[in-house]
Amino acid sequence: MAQRGDQLDRETLSCSICLDLLRDPVTIPCGHSYCMRCIKVFWDGENQRRIYSCPQCREAFTPRPVLKKNTMLAALVEQLKEKTERQRELEVSRLNIQQRIQEREKDVKLLQQQGETVSRSADKAVEDSEKIFTQLIRLLQKRSSDVKRQIRSQQQTEVSGVKELQEKLQQEITELKRKDAELKQLSHTEDHNQFLHNYPSVSQLSEPTDSSSINIRPLRYFEDVTAAVSELRDKLQDILRDKWTNISMTVTRVDVLLPQPEPEPKTRAEFLKYSREITLDPNTANTKLLLSEGNRKVEYTYPLQSYSSHTDRFTNHPQVLSKESLTGRCYWEVERRGGVYVAVAYKNISRGGSESLFGHNDKSWSLICSTNRYGFCFNSIKTLVLGPRSSRVGVYLDHRAGILSFYSVSETMTLLHRVQTTFTQPLYAGLWIGDTAELCKVK
Fold first, then answer.
1. Range with the lowest mean pLDDT among 12-21, 144-153, 265-274, 309-318?
2. Nearest to 422 by CA among 107, 30, 12
3. pLDDT for 199-249, tens place per residue?
4. Which pLDDT tens digit goes with each residue over 405-434?
5. What's the mean pLDDT in 124-151?
6. For residue 17, which phi and psi values (nearest 5 degrees)?
């Protein structure tokens, strides 16, 4: 409904001769209104007949009516124009908002993807760590079993030797007791003849067990094993403590957030840290342009330049692109004279037709620099830009952060216009030339 109302207002306040909004509107006696210049030109053609008619209703007037500006209609036309302008500004604002919404939606999606990636990576790290620790536990358990088996085996060997020696000693004790009983009985024989007769029959004692074969160890036995295992435990604890610090630091160093863009420079000295030496690509230059100063300077010339044909050359507009692609953080300055567009564009921008003009498509962003004012254009939507006039323009690009800023450069730097978007391809510096411009060597 609002668009229908605007259309009716425009039709009501339009001149039926030039079909444009009324300029210096006048109302003739029949009540119809025209641009003062349009109706004058129309009636000048009727001077010979001396009859002056209305182009719409054909009512005739004699003599020629005196034309006076209709101030009320002029005021209405002006109102319809501050409204049209405000609508354009609203459209630009809406476009910026929609771009920001798209950017934030992309950021949300990217964060979601990164969150999912972090979760998958964390799950895998937990799973792998659990497997490694399980293997470590199993290795320790195996070593524990080996130690137990070796201790028990040595225990069995030692105990068997003790029992064998013990049995041998017990047999020797029994034999000695038996001999002692025989000798005791013989010693109590009173008959001398019988004593002498029985004495040789007393069996000789067997050789005693060598006492040196009985090695009584101190009561330590396997305490050395315990000490060795304790030493191993202490070393493992030291290793785990040191390596755990490294593991903890590695985990805390995991960056789970999107990298934040670095702050934008404030002073010219800070901007110059990112200065790029840029040259113009002759293969893209329109034939109305002459390049010089090592392909840094360009001017509008006539007659046309005899460039060779090239698929990258602009055919309809006096434009040229840089040879170098621009990514990361870059800064450059343009010294201009007369009307110049200072732009950035994708490599695949059209090379012909009205859609190839910088700022009149979705592949380029352009600051329009005329003799007395600035403007900004993207996707054929123009915005008036206010700022101090200067012959030098600075351009700052942070490709990753999607920031493009234009500055008026004199003794100080003044921000003219700033774009926040998402760049999907490398950019190239661009110039539309109405007079002369030069890519400056800055230090």
1. 12-21
2. 107
3. 777 666 666 666 555 655 555 667 788 888 888 888 888 787 777 767 766
4. 999 999 889 999 999 999 999 999 999 998
5. 88
6. -90, -55
Q: How many residues belong to the chain?
A: 443
The Cα-based distances of 176 to 173, 181, 198, 363 in angstroms read 5, 9, 19, 118
CB distance 418 to 403 below 8 Å: yes
pTM of the model: 0.47
The bridge status of strand 25-27 relative to strand 33-35 is antiparallel
Which pair of tokens denotes residue 42? 């129309």
CB atoms within 10 A of CB 22: 23
Tokens 């690009």 sit at which residue?
397
Contacts of 34 (CB under 8 A, 6+ apart): 15, 16, 17, 22, 25, 26, 28, 42, 55
Give dist(CA 119, CA 264) in Å, integer: 33
Structural contact between residues 359 and 343, judged by C-beta atoms closer than 8 angstroms: yes
> Which residue in 365, 358, 395 sits closest to 99, CA to CA?
365
Provide, rounded to the nearest whole percent, the portion of the chain with pLDDT above 90.
Answer: 34
Instruction: Count CB-CB contacts under 10 A for residue 419.
Output: 18
Nearest CA-CA partner of 437 in 388, 372, 368, 377: 368
Q: Are 294 and 279 in contact (CB under 8 A)?
A: yes
Planar angle of CA 171, 177, 183, nearest 5 degrees: 140
The span from the first CA to the last CA of the chain, in angstroms, equals: 57
Distances (CA, A) of 265 to 330, 412, 414, 419: 11, 13, 12, 15
Give the mean model confidence (pLDDT) for residues 327-347: 94
Helices 71-187 and 223-252, axial angle in degrees (round to 10): 180
DSSP 280: B
Residue of 271, 251, 299, 249 lying closest to 435 (CA atoms): 299
Phi, psi of 403 (to 5 degrees): -110, 130
Do 50 and 79 contact (CB within 8 A), yes or no?
A: no
**Amino acid 5: pLDDT:** 45
| Residue 412 amino acid letter | T
